[in-house]
Amino acid sequence: MTEATGFEAKTIHRLLEIDPKGGGFKRGADNPLDCDMMVVDEASMVDVMLMQALMKAVPDKAALLIVGDIDQLPSVGPGQVLADVISSGAVAVVRLTEVFRQAAQSRIITSAHRINQGSIPDLSPPATESDFYFVQADDPETAVARVIELVKTRIPKRFGLDPIRDVQVLCPMNRGGVGARSLNIELQKSLNPAGDRKVERFGWTFAPGDKVMQIENDYDKEVYNGDTGTIEDVDTGSGELMVSFDGRSVTYGFGELDMLVLAYAATIHKSQGSEYPAVVIPVLTQHYPMLQRNLLYTGVTRGKKLVVLVGQKKAVAIAVRNISGRRRWSKLAEWLAAKTNRSGRPI
Questions:
Q1: How many contiguous H segments (helices) and E segments (strands) does the chain have?
Q2: pLDDT over threshold 50, residue 248
């Protein structure tokens, strides 16, 4: 958002000045934010408790603009705030539905729209250079080999992208031979085999050059769940490991490494709210428990320049047709609707 707008952007937690010792936030009704307009992006990720905390801190004089996509995965936490706000009819809603000519040239965008509409995207080989591809792999072993080949060789050679910095593998789930955990180990072996300077902790091997992800909020280090970085150094003498997050070096004691995992591959859930130059998504029937339309749609829309699906057409079809998901029960839409004025117009 900072790059796109030229204005400083913050996570909601940082904006509300979370109190790591006392819990809760320093900003609220008694200490509101100083703003005339609040823009909340990626609002589908915001759960009901965090949105309540934000609403308390937004001053009454400020305008509020909420931006998000209800067709993506819902928030990890409880509720479905964005969907409830839209369905309540209590606020003015603008839906962006038109695919303009320039965007229509992108197969990433047209494929995402087809998935969202319940149609299987065009998985045939493109006649010309494209930003969306499907690579057939009928079994897990073949899929793993093709994912590694794509990330290490084919994508860097054809598109000039760095295999570690620019290419992200996104998996429907963590478990299994083509899950994020297993693929992380295989990709690490192929892309950044560990030398002498390494440490083994909590089931992972960490070495300089490895891409890693923080998996829980650490307010003292100012590193948050989902942040990705690169290991700069491993000092076995001092028992410390240094990670660069967007140019800022953060030090971890070896005993704190349960907060980090390798991030060559990640689950699609963990990727929500992020975008990458290139995305490789394995989609196989072994992922059946997680094959859902909103999951595949979220994964495909993470790629900026290139998306490659690897797996079985049958698995893609299962995901596109499965809209069951896990229903969320909420009273928020009903409560908001009750606040609509008598004229029936949004308040």
A1: 13, 14
A2: yes
User: If you average pLDDT over every residue of the chain, what do you get?
Assistant: 93
At residue 341 the predicted structure's pLDDT band, cuts being 50, 70 and 90, is: low
Measured in residues, the chain has a length of 347
For the segment 183-204, what is each residue's pLDDT rounded down to a tens digit? 999 999 999 998 889 999 999 9
Please state the φ and ψ torsions of residue 117, each to the nearest 5 degrees.
-90, 0
State CA 282 to chain mean position distance.
16
Helix (H) / strand (E) element for 50: namely: helix 48-57
Give the integer Cα–Cα distance in Å for 146 and 58. Answer: 49
Please name the helix (run of DSSP H) or strand (run of DSSP E) that holds residue 305, with its range, or none: strand 303-311
Long-range contacts of the stretch 140-145 (C-beta < 8 A, 24+): 140/176, 140/177, 140/178, 140/284, 140/286, 141/177, 143/178, 143/282, 143/284, 143/310, 143/311, 144/177, 144/178, 144/182, 144/183, 144/186
DSSP secondary structure of 182-206: HHHHHHHHHH----SS-EEETTEEE
pLDDT for residue 327: 75
Other CB atoms within 10 A of residue 23 CB: 7
The reported pTM is 0.89
> What is the spatial distance between Cα 206 and Cα 212, in angstroms, rounded to a whole number?
9
The span from the CA of 237 to the CA of 234, in Å, is 9
CA distances 307 to 112, 167, 194, 236, 241, Å, are 11, 10, 28, 39, 33
- List 213's β-bridge partners, or say none: 228, 261
pLDDT for res 342:
47
**pLDDT digit string (tens) for 146-189?**
999 999 999 999 999 999 999 999 999 999 999 999 999 999 99
On whether the CB atoms of residues 58 and 32 are closer than 8 A, the answer is yes
Residue pair 213/228 in contact by the 8 Å Cβ criterion? yes
